[in-house]
Amino acid sequence: MVKYIHYFIDKRENLNNFRKKCLDTWKKELSEEYQIKIWSLDDIEKIDDEMAQKVLELKNYNIQKNYIEIYAMYKYGGIFVNQNIELRKDISDLVSENETFLAMDEKHVISSSIWYEKKPKSYLSTKVYNLFKKNISEGMYNSYFLELQLMFKEILTDFDPSHDKIQNLKNNITIYSSDYFFPYSYNGHTKNITKNTRAINYFHYDFITKKGKVKNVTYSIFGYKIAKKIFALFRFIKNVLRLILLPILKYRRKKKKDTPKHKNLFNVTLEQIPKYKNKEYIAFHNPEWTGVSNATIELFANSIPCGVIFLYILSAKSSTVIVFVVV
Q1: What is the model's pTM?
Q2: CA-angle at 62, arms to 113 and 2, nearest 5°
């Protein structure tokens, strides 16, 4: 029987090298019977389920993402893994000894970023599916009420958030402590790696970028309070230098925009805009700004890569199109 590693991304073309590297670790560490199943927003149209059409009509990214995760686990079982989570150690022991497992994050909240079900239509996946369906049918379209973490809290009433330890709940459900799958903090500069740690969660880009890694080293050496003062001093010096060098910077920026590379990037961006002409919005992002770019892609379904900040006014017969590109 085929088992699945479910992975969601808004659009398949946004599966960048870093995300692919993280996803490949799950395939590498798990047995060959597991196959990667990548889900995107486009797959909702293909789902044969009574809620799929209603979810599509809502046009809410968070609700659609949650629905795909719930449907995947209800229909197929297996493992759902969120973006930017790297598997470091084999979890076959956890898979073999559990019917269902989840894990806490650093705030002692049950996270939806890792979810395992041995079989489809399990106790938990069925409960979550039915609760989601009930909320939708009652017109509760606010994404807050359809968040998986909130539904877990409502269903798993015997979970105790007051301590960060493994908890064995009713109906063969295990909740692992935060050090198993979420050892990295949300703020980007604390870690809780132990012998139990199986995965690394790169939720904050300070754990990925060179600049972020330097910040983490500074926090480790000097402590939080002193490190913040050091960063504040560097920002002050940077702003003073920027003020002094402002005329030179303006000249360089103007010169940079006149290069063939910049013009070509602008043309590529313009070619993609018509694809979204019937959408309510378009979010632009600069791929060179890793953190901002990935956050934009995750938050906005209709996103287009572009270059540096610019404003162009284009004449289109009887109308004028103003394109703002924000990075």
Answers
A1: 0.67
A2: 50
